């Protein structure tokens, strides 16, 4: 399903893009060298929460390490109990055995939003985005650690879900933990965790001993500590406590953000995390293997890392369906169709004959730009598997633009790329986006549609008009609301009737698919 940005998303994006006071990380570029198999990286952050998915070994954890090493910190800055320093260095993450060759010949560019950069031709008033470069020459050390931008950075790895009952230090101090001084944010933490887990905590405190802490809560008349919490509950208290303890404008880096949480809790977690990020100006960068996490974030907050012909490739704006079908390595059909969203998929599933449907796989990608990027990846890989990108009808007059974008993503296009691109694409009927095409066509077959949705003809005419006025991509939410049915059911009903009545408009596409299947066979 196409992601619908909420008012909260728009607020977060606006705040993030205009915030130059909290030293936000805007971009990381690996310009030279290879780090733990990652040989190319150019990732831009446009939203305060960023999720990175990919198969094991693709480079996700390396990107998290690079993010942590973007900053330095004061000695008085925040640090986790086990850490010696208030900042991270590359040696915290890139550790070698004596038989391993350390990374050398590395150059990384970091871009930060900042309001105190020294004056330059591009930043005459010192406000904007500035760049710092980290290098490691052959046989040398990383340069200029102390000159890095100052900021609280915290990395929370998978050890956060280890129960306190299995942590040696917690077990050792189980009898001596006692109340620490109140921090002032305990109620915010208990409310956040309670929201995520659907639980009402009447109290939350942090017990302390030496440099270690232990959460303790009360639910009704029951009082229990981290020794008797589930892994997800412990992790949530640690995550939200860390955010508030760090203070405003911190960077939180999380490995496998969904660990310990069931699907509903993951969705509620991201919802509350957005609130907390807005409140505290926190930036979060995480990895994930969860479709639910991707589904809760805007397209430009999602990245997929993979190896293409042995080279690292990172794709933004990717749909959950496509990303996680890649992770699942689902066996592909004879021909794979790539479409922009679930509306395009619904139209094709109802318009194509069963003889074709049974031999194809349809994957939702997310946008026209994402389709172009995927075609570029297919061209680079030189895949023999037949693939067609089916663009929305309103992309017809942008074919040259989409072709050039795809070509720019290929380092060395083979042969006549424009011809190759044209042979691997087609379009949905019409010259509008698919929702608009469906609703406009639906106004021409109202009697049949009225019977399908159990609505009288006059009322349905008004409902379809409401849908057309709802705005781009909002049509079926409005129509479904007026009809009192679910949006997906509404979309399916309209697509079924319209594609049946106007099946002649699909004949060129069906002919193209038939030829592709014949060639595949």
UniProtKB/TrEMBL annotation:
- The protein's name: AAA ATPase
As one GO molecular function, the record gives:
ATP hydrolysis activity
Q: Which SMART domains match?
A: AAA
**Pfam families reported for this sequence:** AAA_21 (PF13304), AAA_23 (PF13476)
> Could you tell me which SUPFAM superfamilies the record lists for this protein?
P-loop containing nucleoside triphosphate hydrolases (SSF52540)
State the species of origin.
Desulfurivibrio alkaliphilus (strain DSM 19089 / UNIQEM U267 / AHT2)
Q: What is the lineage of its organism?
A: Bacteria, Pseudomonadati, Thermodesulfobacteriota, Desulfobulbia, Desulfobulbales
Task: Tell me the ranges covered by the AAA+ ATPase domain, including all copies.
Answer: 46-309
Q: Which domain of life is it from?
A: Bacteria
What residue stretch is flagged as signal peptide? none
